[in-house]
Design a protein that fits this description.
75% helix; 2 strands; rod-shaped
């Protein structure tokens, strides 16, 4: 009987040892899985943090770019207003000059950076390499609505003003150039504000001027 007890005791001891080893192995595996889960969570958190940081950085850069573009646009607008005021006075005087003196005056103006609105400058300066001829147009209805809002006119009054203005411009251009006003062949760029929008047209010009280092 003593031998049997010894055998049973040994079996119990072996079972206990095996159970303890199994428990230890299970605990080790559980610890490894937990550490792996923590590592994956840390990695995911780091990726999310990087992604968030990149999004914030990109948003900041876009905001800075938009603000810079708006600043340059306003600066250009102020320059244009100043230049336009000076040119309006100059061109009023030019319009009273004989044709030969008028042509020479336009060419003289173009020797320095400037913006010339109309006055057949696209034809007078057509052979100059440093000239960009731009024709800005819009649908007739859009122009009528703009004139109504700007001058407080009725639809019929604004329509008459638009049509009269077009006739005078076409006549003036033909009388001085023998060509059709608005002919696409006389311009390097044509911008339709009805299709593109005024702001988009301004952006197109800004980007072009910057690329060519005009501003």
């Amino acid at each position: 009987m003593a031998g049997l007890e010894n055998i049973l005791g040994q079996i119990r001891a072996d079972a206990q040892s095996t159970a303890e080893q199994a428990a230890a192995q299970a605990q080790k595996q559980a610890d490894e899985l937990m550490e792996q889960a923590r590592a994956e969570a840390r990695e995911k958190s780091a990726r999310e943090a990087e992604r968030t940081e990149a999004m914030v950085r990109d948003a900041g850069e876009r905001a800075k770019s938009a603000a810079d573009l708006e600043r340059r646009r306003r600066l250009l607008s102020e320059k244009q207003s100043l230049i336009s005021g000076i040119l309006d006075q100059a061109l009023e005087t030019l319009g009273q000059l004989p044709d030969a003196e008028y042509l020479e005056a336009i060419r003289k103006l173009a020797e320095q950076p400037c913006i010339i609105l109309g006055r057949c400058a696209s034809n007078i300066l057509k052979n100059r390499m440093n000239v960009l001829n731009i024709f800005v147009c819009a649908d007739k209805e859009d122009r009528i609505q703009r004139i109504m809002g700007k001058y407080g006119l009725t639809y019929d009054e604004a329509k008459e003003k638009v049509e009269t203005n077009d006739e005078e411009r076409a006549s003036y251009y033909y009388d001085h150039t023998g060509k059709t006003w608005g002919d696409v062949n006389d311009y390097h760029m044509i911008l339709d504000t009805s299709e593109l929008g005024v702001e988009n047209c301004a952006d197109i010009l800004m980007h072009y001027f910057e690329k060519c280092e005009y501003i």
